[in-house]
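testing teh design pipeline on a random one, pls ignore if ur not involved
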């Protein structure tokens, strides 16, 4: 397409433009807009949207989009990048996961022009962004007080989606079913390949996650022909492991918890993940793995109630090899930090 039009704003080939997608007004009539930046190359190519902060407290995803928009490779782009650093502007300004009506925007797609606030935002986002794209990336973090290992969730039974997910070069890919009302479900119904990249914790920045997310996006853009392969940072290619199964280990008692495992650790059945105790340290309760696997999510708040989710475990046949792959990821991030800061 020669001209891309988003909410009445025309963006020509070779043009870079910021757009405010009008979605609502506050009680005092202040306009609420979703910030968008469109980068179009001089040559035709695919259209990719990269969306961050659908959950308003997932601010590390915003940092990934910031770095993407500053990346030098965009001067040589083919096709169109639609970058949305903050989708849920209400939640972002309120440091909340949700919209003012407590609805989850990522359970409101494809939306309706006559529905709730969440439904109307979802509807406009679908029609102005998603339906004008060939590919999509949805950036997330863990929920509040939960830290997640870098991972990609997608419908990996589709060969094209699987090959795109592998470009993120993260050790764990989760072949997960789509959830009702999610952006991923709506994109899949339109046959638009979409990857959900997740890592880190809500309301926190994480250098490792931001770097992994950025490099994954650049590698994917090289894969689909938007960028020359020279822009993809050379890294040691690790084997990617795919899981279809995961489970949460929950606290068997209320109290304070001391974790004995970290993200990326391999745990065997019955192995202790953490120990809960009372204020005197007299009564102790072990939190144990039910099935062996890799820790892909952990609670970060030391206070737990009986039944709280403590650890998220992904199950594999070759968990030991995955742990080694995760160690390679850690080494690469440390090497990059030394280059960046001269240490």
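output:
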């Amino acid at each position: 397409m020669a001209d891309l039009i988003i909410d009445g704003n025309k963006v020509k080939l070779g043009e870079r433009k910021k757009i405010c997608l009008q979605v609502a007004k506050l009680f005092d009539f202040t306009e609420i807009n979703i910030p968008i930046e469109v980068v179009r190359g001089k040559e035709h190519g695919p259209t990719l949207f990269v969306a961050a902060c659908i959950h308003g407290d997932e601010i590390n995803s915003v940092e990934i989009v910031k770095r993407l928009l500053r990346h030098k490779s965009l001067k040589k782009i083919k096709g169109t990048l639609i970058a949305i650093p903050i989708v849920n502007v209400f939640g972002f300004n309120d440091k909340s996961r949700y919209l003012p009506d407590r609805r989850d925007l990522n359970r409101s797609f494809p939306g309706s022009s006559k529905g709730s606030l969440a439904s109307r935002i979802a509807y406009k986002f679908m029609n102005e962004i998603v339906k004008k794209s060939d590919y999509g990336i949805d950036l997330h973090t863990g929920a509040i007080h939960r830290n997640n290992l870098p991972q990609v969730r997608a419908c990996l039974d589709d060969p094209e989606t699987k090959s795109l997910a592998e470009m993120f070069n993260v050790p764990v890919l989760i072949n997960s079913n789509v959830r009702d009302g999610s952006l991923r479900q709506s994109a899949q119904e339109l046959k638009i390949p979409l990857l959900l990249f997740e890592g880190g914790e809500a309301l926190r920045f994480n250098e490792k996650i931001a770097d992994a997310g950025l490099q994954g996006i650049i590698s994917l853009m090289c894969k689909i022909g938007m960028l020359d392969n020279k822009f993809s940072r050379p890294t040691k290619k690790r084997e990617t492991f795919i899981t279809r199964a995961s489970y949460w280990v929950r606290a068997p008692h209320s109290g304070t918890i001391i974790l004995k495992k970290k993200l990326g650790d391999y745990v065997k059945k019955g192995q202790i993940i953490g120990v809960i105790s009372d204020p005197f340290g007299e009564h102790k309760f072990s939190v144990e793995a039910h099935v062996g696997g890799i820790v892909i999510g952990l609670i970060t708040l030391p206070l737990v109630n009986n039944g709280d989710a403590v650890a998220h475990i992904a199950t594999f046949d070759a968990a030991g090899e995955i742990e080694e792959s995760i160690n390679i990821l850690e080494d690469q991030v440390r090497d990059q930090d030394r280059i960046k800061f001269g240490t």
